[in-house]
Every structure is written in structure tokens, then in C-alpha cells.
Amino acid sequence: MPGTVQSIERAATLLHAIVESGGQMGVTELAAAVGLPKTTTHGLLRTLLAVGFVEQDPRTGRYALGAGLLGLGSHYLDANELRSRASNWADSLAARSGFAVRLGTPAGLQVVVVHHVFRPDDSPQELEVGSVLPAHATAVGKVLLASRPALARALADARLEALTPRTVVEPAALLAELQTARARGWAEQRGEYRLGVGGIAAPVHGPGGLVVGALGVSGPAEELFAEGARPALRTMVVEAAAAVSRELLA
Amino acid sequence: MTERYVLAVDQGTTSTRSIVFDRAGRLVAVRQREHRQHFPRPGWVEHDPEEIWANTQLTAAQALRDVAGAPGQVVALGIANQRETTVVWDRATGRPLVRALVWQDTRTGPLVEELAARPEAALVRERTGLELAGYFAGPRLRWVLDAVPGARARAERGELLFGTMESWLVWNLTGGTDGGVHVTDVTNASRTLLMDVRRCRWDPDLLDFFGVPAAMLPEIRPSVGVLGTASALPVPLPIGGALGDQQAALFGQTCFAPGEAKCTYGTGSFLLQNTGTDLVRSRHGLISTVAYQLAGEPVHYALEGSIAVTGALVQWLRDSLGLIGSAAEVETLARTVSDNGGCYIVPAFSGLLAPHWEGRARGLVAGLTSYVTKGHLARAVLEATGWQTRDVVRAMDADSGLPMEALRVDGGMTTNNLLMQFLADVLGSPVVRPMVGETVSLGAAYAAGLAVGVWSDTGALRRNWHRSAQWVPDPGRVAALDAAYPEWERAVQLSIAWGERR
């Protein structure tokens, strides 16, 4: 088993101590309770405060669990639940657009395909549910990366694999594209995963507003990006993703 | 060319839905309204026919309004309905005599036992292709005639009308007391125990046996063909067809060739296989039923296997055991383990239907050891649906001898990937899901559209059918599940034996 990360262990111990204190301890008491130097404890608390995992009473200086931590559990959305809620909308997107549809959820710098609807032409196709795609080279992946700024920053240090000559491997270029995607509410890729195959995707929001998945179409790039086809397709994808988001609220 | 749309009304057990489809078979508008379930006594289940008629008018008007601005015109109405639910109403006032007796209602149990004891009872199976069971409409009608004072005399004078739900709706849609058309479609009539399944006519001997006056029965019509004009809608439309819901799903899945089969996975599951224009009599616990009939063409038949509890077992895991928060989470829980851990669940909550027909069987969990976790239980819950499907498919193979190249599936459980793969493995044949999951409504729309020429023939409907997903059997898993099947069969035998000892 690989070694544990000490600071995370300490942060967890500290969170337990905060729970036990019932929100009645300041930094000095907490440091004593977990057996750490006050400066270390202070540093940990400041970090936890910054990410919203703890809150500090501005009057007394005492610490309590933060809303960010409490929200984590309720943001969790079961992937199978997501598929079951999205199914009708994904079917209808495939039927209307004539392209294959995929619904992806984030897994670090990758995307897990949680739902896949065949291109409606009865050609031989294999179900890809459960397969993993590189986020930087797919439209669904770009949507998910764009929704997680911290993750997107980690891209700067990652080695981005060139899957085709068109794959964007320059971190700065990718980050710029993600920023655009976030602003306009959809992303695309043109032969960046497999040559000749493109994709358009839009975000699916969970009940808390957090992006929980990305819904997109993919197919031959020349059809997908044909003159005149694009705006209509884009609208269809964005509307289908919005419909799934609404379905998750119900 | 202007688009032509078809409106389908799916009058189901819990709600009435009005759905508009375009010529490509794509869904354009959906409106839905639930109706109240009445449980006046244990085992009694009733619906208010007037509430259902009001919901039909309301949702149909809403759906028509939804597409009023669309570039096209709605040209026909088709109906799919909950089967075997029985309505008796007054011809002069249009008021139901009593609330509708729903297909889940078990009050006719003692009546059916009494009838079954009579020497001429063998007639029923011979003429109808069905088991003499309280599940069908005929005994319910008889119950109403016995229970309501004066009803039989009034029925004989032609003052009372009988119908299943499509019959009630068509009568009201076409004017009700003001010239309403009193008809039923042949698939619904085949579920009454009153129809000769070969000739597709009300059978005088059966009417005598059940004590039902012929004067109150609707005229039997093909499933595809204009029944009348729905003048009660804001836009009068020809009613182009009607089908029982499971037959409608078979039609919507375009299973038009002998051997083609579909299974709808909901609370319970219904597997129907087209057997062509030949009636196949089951010797393995299935029922013979009418699949559909196009006007002027011979009747097509089907073998049907009904499974009482499939999705309901997942609901039990959620609501009674609280092991999952939503039905979809059963897959998440099941994926925490790689097999069933030797555990089998037979969900015989109120007996077993096809192919066993053991009303007294009771559910059991077999193979418990301390090794079994909730993950294994979740697997066993999903596998129970797969094993039960295998029981029915095996009976179908033996009865029809028709090869089933693939099973077409629809219904809520088809979003469960683990279950769909298990089905492919346990059946040893591919499982395919169509692009339009609303196969019941689609089948009703197809029937109506064919009648008025929106589609030229069934070939045009087939071209609309597209796969949205396919699960292929894994040879290694197929062999492993073949080896495990006797274990399941043993568990089923134990659940039957448990019921017998009570």
C-alpha cells in the first residue's frame, strides 16, 4: 500500500475534532485536542476555510463545519440514476440529430461514458457504456474540464497525449478553448480523438447547479460540421442537456 | 410536403397519456394525467371510468394544442389500453353502473373456482386459448351482473353496455349517448374469455357458461381500421385503431414476422412472440392471444408469458428494505460484487404466473450464508428478472418452435445496463433496445396511421425502427449461467413447495 499523505490525515483529524467540539473551540483548543502545534493547526484551518470545509464565527473566532463540506454529499449523483433520468432525452437527441449520443461523467482528466445511444442507422455498433475517454480530446471531456477550473489548472502540468495530429496538446491553447467553452455553454472537437470524427457537447447540471455530466453527439466531422448544420445541431445538444438538467431537478 | 402526425392515447393502469408522433415515429408532444386508485376492500382495485374519460379529453386536447403551431397536421387517433379492466355502463345516460374492475382486482377468485368445478369448464381453454382465471374480463363482468340488483335483466334488454377501456373511450369519443359507437378491438376481445379465439367471434357456449347476455357486448373489430370519428375532441379525428397495451408494444416494436418477440420490463413483465396467422396452443404454461389484425387481413396470433414481479422486486429493495435510495441505484449496489454469491431470490409475492401458474407459491431467498452482502442481494434481485425471462423464453421455444433471433426490449428497466447484459447472457441471444422507448403509444399510433394511410404498410413501419443499444452474449458467461440454471429451477420448486405446505 502506498504511504498516506500526512496533511490530509491531519485535516481529517481536525474535522473530527471540530465535530466533537460542537463548534465551541477556537484554534488554541483545537490544536490541543489534536496534539499539533498551534501554527500547523492554524495553517490547516486556513486552508479548510478557503475551500469552504470549515467556517469561523467572526465574533468568537470558533470553528464549525462549513457548508462546502455538507454540500459534498448532496452533490453526489449516482451514475446509474443519471442514465435512467437522461435516457428519454438522449434517445430523442439521437433520433432528431441522426448521430450517436454519449453522456459522460468526470473522472479526473478522463471521462466515463455512463450512457450511449447508437447512431440511428442500424449499422454495427458496440455499446461503450463504462469505457473511459481522454477529456482533453473529446467534446464531452472539454465540457467537464471547463466546469472544474481547479482541474483545468492541473492540465498545465499534465502531459497531454496527441491522439491525432489535431489533438490540442498545448496547455495554454487548451485552457483558452475551455474558457470559451465555459462562456458559451458548449464545446466541440474536430477529429482530435479519431481523425474524421467530431463531437459537440453541452453541460448537464445537478440540482445544486454543479456540472455533473456532459451530453454530446459525435459522428463524421464533415456531416457534423457541414455548412448550415452546425447551429441547429448545437441548439439541439444544448437543449437536450438542459432538458436532462431539468429532469434532475424534478 | 406537410408533416402528418398521429395522436396516441395510452390509457394505462396509473395514468392516461396522450402522445403525438411524426411520420418518422419520433415523439413530438407528451401529456399525462394520473387517475385515482380505489381500494374499497382487500384485493379490490377500481378506477373511475368518468375520471379516465375526463383525463383522456384533457390530455388529448393539451397534446393537440402543443402541436397546433407545428408545421403539420394531426390526422388520426390510436388507442392502447390497460387490458382486462372491465366497464359496465348505462346506454341511455352514459353513466357507469359501478366503478371499473381493474385487471389487478382479485375479487372473482371464489367465482372462478366455482366455475372451474363445472363439467363444461374445459370448454374455456379449448375455445379461448386462455386459462380459466380471474385475471380476464369475463368473470368480472359476471361478478357485476350478479352483484348489482336488476343488472342482468337490464343487460338482457340492451340497456347496459360492457366494454374494456378502449371500448368505453371509443363510445365516448364518438358521441356517447348521442350515437356513440360500441366496438372493441380483437386483441382486447381475446382477453375476455368470451371470444372464440379461432373465429374471433363472441361464442354462444361461452356466453352461456359465464351467464353473459349477448345484447350488452360490443362489436369485435380489427385492431387496424377506422372505428369511427372522435367528434368529442377539439379537432375531430378518425379513430384508426385500438390495441391492448402489450399487443400495442409488440406492434410498436414492429414484431410483424413469426418468431419476433418483445418483452416490456416494468413493475411486472410481458413477453409476447408473434406466431403468425397460426394459433399456437401452449403446452408449457403460456397463453395464446391475438397479436393484431389489419382490416381485411387474417388475424395474427401471439404466445404470451406474463411475469408478475420484476421491477416490483427492485421497488421492494428500495421501499421495504431501504437498501437503495432510487431504483436506478440497484445497479450501483449490484456492481459492488462480481456475482450473486450463491444467492437466488424467487419473487413469488402473490404466486407465480407464466410458465408455472402457481398461485400459492410464496417468495424466498435461497442460498444465504454469512458471505452474502447487500451487494449480492442486489445482484440476485436483478438476476431474478433474467431467470424468470429465461423460464418464459424456454417455454416459448418449446411451444412455437420458432427461433428467437434477438429479444426486443422496452420499459423502465432497460436503462439498467447490468440487467440487460445479464439477460443477453442468460438467454444466449442478443438483446436490443429501440430508439423510441414509448412502444405502447407508438404501436397505437402506428395502427391508427396505417388505417388512414400515413404509412403505406408494415414495411414502412419497420424502416422507422432503429436500435438505440444492443447487448451481445458473452460465450463464457452463457456457459456459466447454463450451468447455474438448475439452481434457479430448484429455488422455484422450493417456493412452490413452500406455498403448498401452508
TrEMBL record, chain A:
Keywords assigned by UniProt, alphabetized: DNA-binding, Glycerol metabolism, Transcription, Transcription regulation
Protein name: Glycerol operon regulatory protein
Database matches in PANTHER family: HELIX-TURN-HELIX TRANSCRIPTIONAL REGULATOR, ICLR FAMILY, HTH-TYPE TRANSCRIPTIONAL REPRESSOR ALLR
HTH iclR-type domain ranges (all copies): 5-67
Boundaries of every IclR-ED domain copy: 68-250
InterPro entries reported for this sequence: GAF-like_dom_sf, HTH_MetabolicPath_Reg, Tscrpt_reg_IclR_C, Tscrpt_reg_IclR_N, WH-like_DNA-bd_sf, WH_DNA-bd_sf
GO biological process: glycerol metabolic process; negative regulation of DNA-templated transcription
SMART domains the UniProt entry points to: HTH_ICLR
Pfam families the record matches: HTH_IclR, IclR_C
Coiled coil: none
Molecular-function annotations in GO: DNA binding; DNA-binding transcription factor activity
Role: May be an activator protein for the gylABX operon.
SUPFAM superfamilies registered for this protein in UniProt: GAF domain-like, Winged helix' DNA-binding domain
From TrEMBL, chain B:
Residues binding ADP, per UniProt: 13, 17, 267, 311, 412, 416
Binding residue positions for ATP: 13-15, 267, 311, 315, 412
UniProt KW keywords: ATP-binding, Glycerol metabolism, Kinase, Nucleotide-binding, Transferase
Biological role: Key enzyme in the regulation of glycerol uptake and metabolism. Catalyzes the phosphorylation of glycerol to yield sn-glycerol 3-phosphate.
BP GO annotations: glycerol catabolic process; glycerol-3-phosphate metabolic process
Protein name: Glycerol kinase
Domain of life: Bacteria
Residue positions binding sn-glycerol 3-phosphate: 13, 83-84, 135, 245
GO cellular component, one term: cytosol
Transmembrane segments: none
NCBIfam families: glycerol_kin, PRK00047.1
InterPro entries, per the entry: ATPase_NBD, Carb_kinase_FGGY, Carb_kinase_FGGY_CS, FGGY_C, FGGY_N, Glycerol_kin
Regulation (activators, inhibitors): Inhibited by fructose 1,6-bisphosphate (FBP).
Keyword Nucleotide-binding among UniProt keywords: yes
Domain Carbohydrate kinase FGGY C-terminal: 261-451
PROSITE patterns: FGGY_KINASES_2 (PS00445)
Entry similarity comment: Belongs to the FGGY kinase family.
Gene Ontology molecular function: ATP binding; glycerol kinase activity
EC number(s) reported in the record: 2.7.1.30
Residues holding glycerol: 83-84, 135, 245-246
PANTHER family the UniProt entry points to: GLYCEROL KINASE, SUGAR KINASE
HAMAP family given in the database record: Glycerol_kin
Catalyzed reactions: glycerol + ATP = sn-glycerol 3-phosphate + ADP + H(+)
Signal peptide start and end residues: none
Pathway field: Polyol metabolism; glycerol degradation via glycerol kinase pathway; sn-glycerol 3-phosphate from glycerol: step 1/1
